[in-house]
């Protein structure tokens, strides 16, 4: 049976940030896609991981742990978050191989239920190596989403111009019109 439609307002971000975005604010109420295995199935399918990993309680528990570690890393002190992220990364490693197509790197897990969590934590390290200053929280009031700013000049402020960006512009317009 195919997974249900992904209800989140922002999808398609790099895996680490997409995991953070499994929590979002909808009309003042925080929603959590990872509140159960049904939402886990949606997240796995949305990220192309459904075939390789079951939507079971162990995967869910490990993903929640990874999400907490990534929230601490993105929103807090790197020194305090490092042990939390490292605790997730302890459950996997990269295996270098030579294939018919050339060099390859493949993740390996002693316990496959750590796979999605490890991949998200590893993706966070890749983002840090690429452009840490472009990992951003949405500037929209009350929004809890994160994104990787791929704009040319690196000035993206909102998760979505259509949602949070439009609200911010409308709010500024309203404030200006009240002054007159």
Task: List key phrases describing it.
two-stranded antiparallel sheet, alpha+beta, 180 residues, globular, two-stranded antiparallel ribbon, single chain, 46% helix
Brief synopsis:
With 180 residues, this protein is of the alpha+beta class. It is built from six helices and six strands. The protein has helices at residues 15-20, 37-46, 57-75, 78-89, 115-130, 161-179; strands at residues 23-26, 29-32, 92-99, 102-109, 135-137, 146-148.
Unreliable spans are none
Helix content bin: 40-55%
Return the structural class. Answer: alpha+beta
Largest sheet: 2 strands, antiparallel
Order of helices and strands: HEEHHHEEHEEH
Mean pLDDT: 91
Q: In one word, what is the shape?
A: globular
- Compute the gyration radius: what is it? 18 Å
Name the beta content range. 15-25%
How many helices?
6
**Strand order of the biggest β-sheet:** 1-2
| Total DSSP E strands | 6
Termini separation (Å)?
58 Å
SSE topology sketch:
Blueprint: H1 15-20, E1 23-26, E2 29-32, H2 37-46, H3 57-75, H4 78-89, E3 92-99, E4 102-109, H5 115-130, E5 135-137, E6 146-148, H6 161-179
Antiparallel strand pairs: 1-2, 3-4, 5-6
Helix pairs in contact: 3-4, 3-5, 4-5
Structure description:
It is built from six helices and six strands, in the order αββαααββαββα. Helix 3 packs parallel to helix 5 and helix 4 (78-89) crosses helix 5. The longest helix is centred in the middle third of the chain and has 19 residues, at 57-75. The chain has a two-stranded antiparallel ribbon. It has 180 residues and is an alpha+beta fold. The chain is 46% helix and 17% strand. It starts with 14 loop residues before the first helix and ends with a helix.
